[in-house]
């Protein structure tokens, strides 16, 4: 089975006059233990931790976090000890995600939400730093330039498999993954669909982070205005596809997820990111707002998240 597969548009969304083709890069099939984008975001954080000879790696995430899950699975067979600061107090019954994280040998630290927000400046992080020497901290979601750099490599690998697309589509939370993909600079337009409510400003952050990556790869201090323009023209950001907010679902969206699975039996969308991304783009296509011939969806994984739903 190829890792790039045709995507069959669900019946209700098909159009007679359309001649666009859709494909999915099955990131959800990579790395059996840590599929999707999170492993790519961790890659350069791990090499940085090695350079600094850290023994402890620590990070942050919610009780259903794909990032914590990938972090734990990646560290399980590594020389590092892993520490996870979990958003909110631990419940008597761990979520399935946190059960997996704990069984990979990670230490779980509960936090108060308002302290959690402070990240490495939180009281809980300070306590961890007092207890353990040389902790290497990875930001929530594996973000930053190092996280994005791993996604630039990912984009290159995908592009080398097949570069005949005029649009790529990817989901965003922090926007790190999309910034890495944008920095790869192929010919395709990049459509980024945010899973968060009120993310209008994020487009600029994605452009800025992609710019930082390109500058550090080129060893230059500034980007030419021609290059800035190209990035700006290639990036399309959708902030109105959240369906009520993070991890919320409308009935229409739930129906779409089911129909997608019926027309693509081997494909599952995750409950937080990819379902909204596919839904939004396929609706645009149905409404005649999708001018592309060949579109590639990047499936960013996250299927373990379904265990949080009944
Ligand atoms: C974390 C995640 C994203 C968002 O990635 P960012 O780099 O934070 O934008 C998208 N899809 C899935 C399945 C994820 O787990």
Could you characterize what this model shows?
Helix 2 packs parallel to helix 3, helix 6 crosses helix 7 (about 175-185) and helix 7 (about 175-185) crosses helix 8 (about 200-220). The relative contact order is 0.17. This protein has helices at about 35-50, 65-75, 95-105, 115, 125-130, 145-160, 175-185, 200-220, 225-235, 250-265, 275-285, and strands spanning about 5, 20-25, 55-60, 80-85, 105-110, 135-140, 165-170, 190-195, 235-240, 295-300. Helices cover about 40% and strands about 15% of the residues. It has eleven helices and ten strands. The strands form two sheets. A six-stranded mixed β-sheet has the order 1-2-10-7-8-9, with helices on both faces. A four-stranded parallel β-sheet has the order 5-4-3-6, sandwiched between helices. It is of the alpha/beta class. The radius of gyration is 20 Å and the shape is globular. The structure holds pyridoxal-5'-phosphate (PLP). Pyridoxal-5'-phosphate (PLP) binds near residues 174 and 300.
């Amino acid at each position: 089975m190829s890792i790039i597969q045709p995507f069959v548009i669900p019946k209700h969304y098909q159009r007679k006059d359309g001649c666009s083709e859709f494909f999915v890069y099955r990131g959800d099939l990579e790395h059996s233990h840590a599929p999707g984008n999170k492993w790519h975001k961790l890659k350069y954080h791990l090499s940085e931790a090695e350079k600094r000879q850290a023994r402890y790696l620590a990070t942050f995430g919610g009780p259903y976090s794909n990032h914590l899950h990938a972090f734990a699975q990646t560290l399980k067979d590594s020389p590092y000890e892993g520490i996870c600061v979990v958003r909110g107090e631990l419940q008597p019954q761990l979520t399935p995600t946190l059960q997996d994280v704990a069984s990979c040998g990670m230490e779980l630290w509960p936090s108060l939400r308002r302290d959690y927000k402070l990240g490495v400046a939180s009281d809980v992080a300070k306590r961890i730093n007092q207890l353990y020497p040389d902790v290497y901290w990875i930001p929530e979601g594996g973000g930053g330039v190092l996280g994005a750099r791993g996604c630039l490599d990912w984009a290159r690998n995908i592009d080398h498999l097949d570069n005949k697309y005029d649009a790529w589509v990817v989901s965003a939370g922090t926007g790190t993954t999309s910034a890495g993909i944008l920095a790869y600079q192929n010919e395709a337009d990049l459509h980024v669909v945010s899973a968060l409510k009120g993310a209008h400003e994020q487009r600029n952050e994605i452009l800025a982070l992609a710019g930082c990556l390109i500058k550090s790869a080129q060893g230059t201090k500034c980007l030419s205005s021609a290059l800035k323009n190209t990035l700006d023209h290639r990036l399309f950001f959708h902030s109105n596809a959240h369906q009520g907010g993070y991890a919320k679902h409308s009935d229409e969206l739930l129906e779409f997820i089911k129909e997608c699975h019926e027309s693509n039996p081997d494909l599952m969308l995750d409950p937080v990111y990819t379902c909204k991304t596919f839904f939004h783009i396929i609706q645009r296509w149905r409404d005649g707002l999708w001018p592309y011939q060949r579109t590639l969806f990047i499936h960013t994984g996250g299927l373990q998240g379904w265990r949080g739903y009944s």
